[in-house]
Design goal:
The chain is α/β, with parallel strands linked by helices. It has 13 helices and 14 strands. The strands form four sheets. It has a five-stranded parallel β-sheet, sandwiched between helices. It has a four-stranded antiparallel β-sheet with strand order 6-7-8-9. The longest helix has 20 residues. The chain is globular, with a radius of gyration of 22 Å. 50% of the residues are buried.
């Protein structure tokens, strides 16, 4: 699947400004911040969209999080291999297509293209491997066969299920106990009450063909993949085992990331990811942001209304990635005012030290991607009227571009 265009990311090292520090991020599975500082190459997997709707601010906040991580790694001097999926066949997509009378393939292609346009406008670094579920059928089938060989698969009618307790470490990603899992599982696509399952938490690997649903011929029978196995198969193919970071929104901790990790671990005998990083949820004026409530704040709508994409990005950066927060109408107004101040300030002929603010931004990003602290450092520099460094404007502009992704 085609990704989107790569923004120009300046190298601070090439300007003689050295490399950034080691990055620490909060690991959900450990419950604390940990260094993620591989030797030469960083491997990242982030769960992508199910393309039945346009990119809202919650989506954008998640993908911005891992854009910041990529930028901090690059500033560290690391090569980054980034993989992201597109769940371009799944129940929510098929249900939306049926409800709107649009062909499901057409709907998926249309919304994926809009997502690409939004990511390009926000200057999000694209994945090297952007992979759809539909084009990964063979990978999924092969992984299910490996799980069958491990004795972790059983049949319910013509569907195939994964025995989650084949993984002794099941539950270590989320830290949830079984009662908590059973509460969440049906809310997020699970089917704990299906008759014939060995355990309520066991998850679907391969769904046999249903009337009027898309299906593919395979060694498993005619059908389509389950959700969790899709990401496990794509990540293993493009990143291998024990890759550095598995990322996504906090709503994916369980069951999605828990199940994917267990499936991969049972199939390979090795750890799936070393670190699990999750972004918070974005609401709207006190409510959950959702299509059913009609309160989605769409990136494409903000852009169509004339808002600078860099202001949209700044509005997102004003909140720490792990925080749950609410979008209010004044978010974009405040961000546009900040953007204007910054653009004026970097144009000064002489300004306060640029290297000092660069180091503050670097320290903030290394400390669990603390974008609000980075923004505060730039704001303080903007408000300082000392005149001592004729290169300050260039240094700060480049730092903001390289580390925060905001083009001034």
């Amino acid at each position: 699947m085609r990704s989107w265009s790569v923004p120009e990311v300046p190298s601070l090292g090439d300007l003689g400004l050295g490399d950034g520090p080691a990055v620490h991020v909060h690991d959900t599975s450990a419950g604390e911040a940990r260094p993620v500082d591989p030797q030469d190459q960083a491997r990242l997997y982030v769960c992508g969209i199910t393309p039945y709707d346009a990119t809202h601010m919650g989506h954008a906040a998640t993908y911005l999080t891992f854009d910041l991580l990529q930028r901090a790694w690059r500033d560290r001097g690391l090569d980054v291999v980034y993989t992201q999926n597109v769940t371009d066949v799944d129940d929510p997509l098929l249900e939306r297509a049926q409800a709107t009378g649009v062909d499901w393939v057409e709907l998926a292609e249309r919304e994926t293209q809009l997502f690409r346009e939004d990511m390009t406008a926000l200057r999000i670094i694209p994945p090297a491997h952007y992979v759809g579920a539909v084009e990964s059928i063979d990978l999924v089938v092969a992984l299910v066969q490996r799980l069958e060989s491990a004795g972790a698969v059983y049949r319910v009618d013509d569907d195939l299920y994964f025995d989650v307790h084949a993984d002794p470490g099941f539950g270590l990603v989320s830290g949830l106990d079984e009662d908590q899992m059973l509460t969440i599982f049906p809310q997020r696509g699970g089917d704990p009450d299906r008759a014939g399952k060995k355990h309520p938490l066991d998850c679907l690997l391969w769904q046999a063909e249903r009337p009027d649903d898309p299906a593919w011929d395979s060694a498993l029978g005619r059908g389509r993949p389950g959700w969790h196995i899709e990401c496990a198969a794509i990540a293993l193919e493009h990143l291998g085992t024990a890759f550095d970071v598995q990322g996504g929104g906090s709503d994916l901790v369980f069951p999605h990331h828990e199940m994917s990790a267990s499936e991969a671990t049972v199939a390979t005998g090795e750890a799936f990811a070393r670190t699990y990083v999750h972004a918070g949820m974005v609401g709207y004026e006190g409510e959950k942001m959702s299509k059913s409530k009609g309160n989605l704040v769409l990136v494409s709508k903000l852009r169509a209304d004339g808002h600078d994409p860099m202001a949209i990005r700044l509005a997102l950066l004003a909140h720490h990635y792990r925080s749950d927060w609410e979008w209010f109408g004044d978010e974009i107004t405040a961000a546009e005012a900040r953007l204007a101040r910054w653009r004026d300030a970097v144009g000064r002929t002489v300004a306060p030290s640029g290297t000092a603010v660069l180091e503050q931004i670097r320290a903030a990003m290394a400390d669990d991607l603390d974008a609000p602290a980075a923004l505060a450092a730039v704001d303080a520099w903007v408000a300082n009227d000392d005149a001592e460094d004729p290169q300050a404007g260039r240094t700060v502009r480049t730092a903001i571009d390289a580390l925060l992704g905001v083009a001034l």
